[in-house]
Specification:
single chain; alpha/beta; TIM Barrel; three-stranded antiparallel beta sheet; 12 helices; globular; EC 3.5.2.3; pyrimidine biosynthesis; metal-binding
């Protein structure tokens, strides 16, 4: 069996910087045409000028023949100015602003502490500029259980935000609960959407503990109950335009994952498309896969669809146990396991397209 898809985009991607950027960027560029690049570096990408510089670093890290396009974002802080939003929109390289509640996840210590106070003028300018707000949807109150932080964020932050600024485009990223599914489905199409990761479609919270503590399945937001996983699968395989692909691929060197205080993040870039295909096939919804991977995201962002194609072949392949680099090793998601869908890109995919076009002309 083979599937031909319009080349997908990744609407939530961590490429890091330095040696790690050099190591992981080619893996995303191999399969995806574009990606929304997260700004949580040290220091964070808080200005348009910094975003332009970071973009240049990414382009230098790509293979020479790559057409991958990084879509940059700004890291929202209490000090972000409305004028910076104007500069970002006019730059042609910044496509969204990322909201990290302070302390919510990796490198979020510079995040927002007063969204409705200090950040309100910026949010109002984002409405004027049609600039999407990308949300890490968790509260950081230590009194709130870690498994409830997404739901509480919806109730106390997102719902009031949507009511106050109904024309603000909002993407709730890496949703993990049925509460998030219901919230996104309740909003106005074109103004409220969500990205969904392969890990939150395939794994539930048991995967953190089966056979011992599993640090390479640890991400934020953390995996949730099976009922939540099923709700997310149902949502993305329904054909709804409100949900689209966002891997949240977040690489860390092996020793930073396997230590007394391991980092959150799953490196899934090499396997993401295979895993998404697995989910849609098991749901009997392969006919809806292309919209999720390749159409819904560009439509929400007001961008054209990619013209290139990618082929997925039903052929078993084994994921490497680890990927080795000069600075150490990175463990990919499902390391050492076998998957049943294999992406095919480059000349082979182009040859497939040519054969299909000839067949269509003869038919």
């Amino acid at each position: 069996m083979e599937l031909t898809l319009t080349q997908p985009d990744d609407w939530h991607l961590h490429l890091r910087d330095g040696d790690l950027l050099q190591a992981v960027a080619p893996h995303s560029a191999k399969h995806f045409g574009r990606a929304i690049i997260m700004p949580n570096l040290k220091p964070p990408i808080t200005t348009t000028a910094a975003a332009v510089t970071y973009r240049e670093s990414i382009l230098k890290a790509l293979p020479a023949d790559s057409n991958f396009t990084p879509l940059m974002t700004l890291y929202l802080t209490d000090k972000t100015s409305p004028n910076e939003i104007k500069l970002a929109r006019r730059s042609g390289v910044v496509f969204a602003v990322k909201l990290y509640p302070a302390g919510a996840t990796t490198n979020s210590q510079d995040g927002v502490t007063d969204l409705f106070g200090k950040c309100l003028p910026v949010l109002e300018e984002m409405v004027e500029e049609n600039m999407p707000l990308l949300v890490h949807g968790e509260v950081t109150d230590p009194d709130v259980d870690v498994f409830d932080r997404e739901k509480v964020f919806i109730d106390t932050v997102l719902q009031p935000l949507i009511q106050r600024l109904p024309r603000l485009k909002v993407v709730m990223e890496h949703i993990t609960t049925m509460d998030a599914v219901r919230f996104v489905e309740s909003g106005e199409e074109g103004f409220l959407a969500a990205t969904v990761t392969p890990q939150h479609l395939i794994l539930n919270r048991n995967a953190l503990f089966q056979g011992g503590l599993q640090p390479h399945n640890y991400c934020l937001p953390v995996l949730k109950r099976e009922t939540h996983r099923q709700a997310i699968v149902s949502a993305v395989t329904s054909g709804s335009k409100r949900f689209f692909l966002g891997t949240d691929s977040a690489p860390h060197e092996k020793q930073r994952k396997e230590c007394s205080c391991g980092c959150a993040g799953i490196f899934n870039a090499p396997v993401a498309l295979s895993l998404y295909a697995k989910v849609f096939e098991e749901a009997g919804a392969l006919d809806k896969l292309e919209a999720f991977t390749s159409f819904n995201g560009p439509e929400f962002y007001g961008l054209p669809r990619n013209t290139a194609k990618i082929k997925l072949t039903k052929a078993s392949w084994k994921i490497p146990d680890s990927l080795s680099f000069s600075f150490g090793n990175i463990i990919p998601m499902f390391a050492g396991e076998t998957l049943e869908w294999q992406p095919c890109v480059g000349e082979k995919a182009e040859m497939l397209n040519e054969v299909q076009e000839v067949g269509a002309n003869k038919g």
